[in-house]
Amino acid sequence: MSIPPSIIPAKKRVRRKRRAESPAAEPPPSGNRILSVVRDPSSESPTLVVTLSQPAVDVHLPEGFGVYLGGLVGADNVDVSNPLAVRFIFLEPIDPATQWAVLDPSAWTFADSETLLEPFEGEIG
Hints:
The chain is mainly beta. Helices cover 0% and strands 31% of the residues.
């Protein structure tokens, strides 16, 4: 004797959790921003290299960039020959400096004619 089809128990449905979507990689910052500031050990003069998100054309000194050494010390010269890695040269030693700052963001001129966006200060890497 066989069991009528209406009485056969249905298989239990297994519900599986969906995999959590992996977080998307953070997009690069948009706009004209300072991405990093590092020392240039190959330079004879105290020099910091500022990596940018967009190419710079010019930076007016001293309000454009400086470091904290018991107060803000502005850079004495700027080299924009590599517009994405601007070099700031100082006349005095800046070895003890750990923080950088931009006093006036409008001192920066970018290829797209837009202004410098935050951050306007940070750590020297």
